Structures are given as C-alpha cells and as structure tokens.
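quick one before i forget lol
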Amino acid sequence: MKRSASANIVMHSKGEAQLIFSLAVADKAHAEERLSVRLNEEEIACREVFDQHGTRLHVVEVGIGRVHVTYDVDVVGHTELEQCDEIDQIRYLRQSRYCESDQLGPTARDRFEGLSGLVLLNAVRDWVHQQLHYVPGSSRSADGAIQAYIARQGVCRDFAHLAIALLRSLDVPARLASTYAPGLSPMDFHAVAEAFIDGRWVVVDPTGRAPRQTMMRIATGRDAADIAWLTAIGAPVTFGSLAVTAEADVIPADDHRELVTLGQ
C-alpha cells in the first residue's frame, strides 16, 4: 500500500518561544518526507529528538512573527512495533491524566464481567461506539474519559480515551496513538487506542471513521498529553490555521472485529 500525508500549519508567535511539533511519521525507514519551518518567510533550522515507540519530535526556536510549518510524507509498507515489555505492562495499565481507569473500574466490571481476550476487546469497542456521538468541537482540551462518558459525545480522542480507560480497568494494557488516516472524514489528525492482546498491539478505533489498515503512526503515549501535535514554551503563540491531508492508493473495507496492527 502506498500512502501519503501532509500538514500545513500557520501560527503567530508574540515573542521568543520554543515550539515542539509532533508531525512526522514514526516509521522513518519507509518514508520519504519534507519538513519546513519558516519565521516571517525565512527558513529556520529545527532539531529532531526521539520519544518512546518511535515518536519523533521536532524542536525549533522562534521569535516574533508568523510561523509557517509544512510537512509532506510518502510511505510504502510499515515496520511492526516492538512487543510489550515489562515497563509497558506497568505504564499502560496505570491511570493517566485523561484516562481515569480507577474511577471507571466499577462501570467496566459491571458491563464486561466474564469477558476476556478478543471478545472483551470487541465488546468495549462496540459499546463505546454505540454510547458516544461523534460531534466535532464538542470536547474541551481538559476533558477526559469520564467527561466523555457523562456527555455521551466527543471527538476521536474522547472515544479512544474512554476505550483505554475501560480496558486498563480490566487489566488490559492500552495506550493512545496519533495518526494520519487516509479515508477519514472530516480530515484531521486522528487518535486511536491500541490494546495489547494475543502478544501484540492492535488498533481499536471506536469511531469507525477510517480504515485502520491505512493509518500511519505519528506519536504514541498514555493519553493526549503525550501525543500533542504542538507544545509551546515561552511567549504566547496564537493559532492561525491547520490543514491535514492523508491519502492511500487503496482504501479497504475494515471489519473492526479483525485484529489490525498499526506498525511503527
């Protein structure tokens, strides 16, 4: 499968700031990519730092003015992600900022008692899909799984946070991944859950809005706090515009009961 993606971002910095972008695909070995950062139309250098699971961050120092970032990538194939080591077993079973698994434990045990393995995974995915309504712009940056559960609506990260919290409370390691997702509508960055089952990480997308087979991993972590596409340190930065595209030469039908891996 051949896939491509792009991100075009405009923002304005009101002073000296450090900007950290999470835009690049994790699987650099299979990618041809171009990243450009401009301040007031002048190209500026950025440096790459690495987070866990192949996440690549690009750090740039800017001053006052218009910041324009473009990223384009072409991908052929993908690399399987590493297996779940002991640290992952600990990290991705713990409660985190947006995935309040401790509080949701009684709800999870009541609704999914006696289920395990693939049956449990599908039951959690289907329940979240049925309970939440996808409403663009409906959630706030501080909202987590509990708020999504109460409001019964959200965007992709809210669906994923609720699924992750429920799985963790049932002793299934689960985490969040940001992706480029060909076939997604409306187009944007797309957040999905991953669960460790049958010896591998598999994609869980309760929104069902894009085929999992086409997705390209960007970042991976405990929840949205770990996969933010932008972190700004220093002077205030005002957001201008964001345009994301993602395409594939084949857009397959996705049976969400099948195990699909995202790769690195």
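fyi Residues 140 and 154 are 9 Å apart (CA to CA).
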